[in-house]
Amino acid sequence: MKFTATSRSVQGSSASRRLRRAGRVPAIVYGGKGDALSIELDHNEIFHALRKEEFHASVLDMELDGQVQNVLLRAVQWHAYKPQVMHVDFQRVSADQALTTKVPLHFVNEEVSPAVKLQGAQVTRIATEVEITCLPKDLPQYVEVDLSCLEAGAVFHLSQLTAPAGVQFVVIGDDPVLAAASAAVAGDGAENGESAE
Length: 197
What we know:
The protein is mostly beta strands. The chain has helices spanning 13-21, 43-50, 53-56, 114-117; strands at residues 2-7, 24-30, 37-42, 60-64, 67-78, 85-92, 99-108, 123-125, 129-134, 143-146, 155-157, 168-169, 177-181. The chain has a six-stranded mixed β-barrel with strand order 1-3-2-6-5-4. A four-stranded mixed β-sheet has the order 10-7-9-12, with no helix packed on it. Strands 8-13-11 form a three-stranded antiparallel β-sheet, with no helix packed on it. Strand 4 (60-64) and strand 5 form a beta hairpin. Residues 187-197 have low confidence and may be disordered.
């Protein structure tokens, strides 16, 4: 995905307030071989981009003063109660340097799992994203979690997930649980095929 940025020479909280009143968003880009650089973005463009999942988990093409740089979204600061982007952080990425970031999990085949289809259990998704390390070219937009074999009362651990090619999961401590299937509760009307909803 591509977005446009402009260099920002004036800094400070009052300058940032003036930018926001003008429909602009103060931002910073850091890392890689260059110095940290203050930039500004068009609020409408970045607001709509942030609503797309791939903007959060893709190497982005940032066009800055006529030159394109590869960056990764690192942080977004939102207004406390208004739908307004206050500040954005980006990190430069190099094709030959591994990066560490979080990508969303997409759960599939939950409805055909034995837990749901045969045993009337409910599946709870414990995690929504996973931390990975990989080269920029191997960065997936998401990681798919296939729950088709999940049984009632069982849990699905990260260790059961196969990482995409070129990707490694970052695990600190215990093997995290991604999803769990509760045991079916007898006598709640589910046994006669009625939905509890």
